[in-house]
Amino acid sequence: PTAARRDRDGALMIGGARLGDLQRGFGSPSYILDRADLRGRARVWASAMAEEFWEGYGMAGGRAYYAAKALACADVVRVVTAEGMGVDAASLGELTIALCAGADPALVGLHGNNKLDGEIDLAIAAGIARVVVDSLPEVARLEAAAARRGVGVPVMVRLKTGIHAGGNEYIATSHEDQKFGVSVNDGGAMEVVRAIAASGHLRLVGLHNHIGSQIEGVGAFVAAARIVLDFRGRIAREHGIWVPEVDLGGGLGIAYSGADPVPTSPATLARALAEVVRERCVEQGSPIPRVSVEPGRSVIGPACVTVYEVGTLKDVSLEGGAVRRYVSVDGGMSDNIRPALYGAVCTATLANRASAGPWARCRVVGRHCESGDIVVRDVDLPADLRPGDLLAVPATGAYGWSMASNYNYLTKPGVLAVEDGAARWAVRPQTLEDLMDLDPGLAGRPLP
Ligand code: LLP
Predict the structure, then answer these.
(1) Coiled coil where (predicted)?
(2) pTM to 2 decimals?
(3) What residue ranges define each of the domains in the chain, with the CATH number in brackets?
(4) What number is the ipTM of this complex?
(5) Measured between alpha carbons, how far apart are the two ends of the chain, in Å?
(6) 352 lines ligand 1 (CB under 6 A)
């Protein structure tokens, strides 16, 4: 599940550097980003959506937009865009970062179920590739903003297809009873299409459906694509136009531990989408749309590990005489909320040295004042694990740093980019002074 390898002595390496050396030099917890691995994943996505791939199916190439919500910083945006990905933003911050990092506005999209005026204004002023409309009231707001500037705005419509997919309830996003998109089943989506058609400044360039996240296999994507294409046919019958692009969103799952299934590859998804889109368009006698996607997790997730230092060890007696060793590390739910929030399952491995066992049944926990502050619920770690050892938790690149908090006034760890053995901060860690500066009662005070 991770880009890390071990050297001859059994110490974990990432990006050509020993994790132990990185931790000594830069501290922990840190998100360690293997830049070459990220570049490779971005390249795989970009080429799965590129012209050459789709030509084989008699289709035009689409594009893969990197979902910045997974982890947005200048270095990551630059690496993925250099490989040919666009960027999908879902807030003013993500949009600003994408543009400031140098992403071509013509390859940037904007999402949001409650877009702020400032987001709409920036999207229009920058001339981004597409604004993904999420509701009927948004059409009027976009039209007014576009009219004020006297420019046309390319829009997609985010559809609710009724497909229920995703690793858990919080990240399934296309069943009816949730907040995103407009339904193809209750007339809502067609109403939005009509409003766009009647507007003076909005141009319908695509139909969008993000079904959810951490999805296994291609079945749900294919089912969603069929529904989107059927809706495209209904638009053609009513308005006489074939919408030129469909975007199937992000959502491809990754492996967080060896227990997870081998993830579906971008090429496998692209092939499945090419086949279903072609087949449906032949049945419909329609021109074939371009197909795009918006992966986040599968681009950045496996490219990072989190490194922690082991602190307190505590053996807890369980019913039946068994013992569970609680291994406290120097981070926790503030740098990885996924286990506590979604019941997500991660694993951990000893990073600074080799071990051949024997093993002890461990629970890796953080430093926060909640018993739910669990990083890894169940993992076998060396029985001789001691304070000062390092643990690596793989595949934390997506929704780790981006969902990190300052709970218990912990500072947010940095993202350390490593390549060819050399490391530098892609995002530096927060300091206590950074946090205190936000508080007028504390700003500028010397530390005690
Ligand atoms: N496009 C849209 C409209 C999205 O809402 C998302 C993710 C993506 C693309 C990217 O999906 P991905 O390829 O990363 O699955 N915090 C959760 C995941 C939330 C996903 C939100 N939307 C987690 O840690 O599992």
Answers:
(1) none
(2) 0.97
(3) 5-29+302-437 (2.40.37.10), 35-295 (3.20.20.10)
(4) 0.99
(5) 42
(6) no
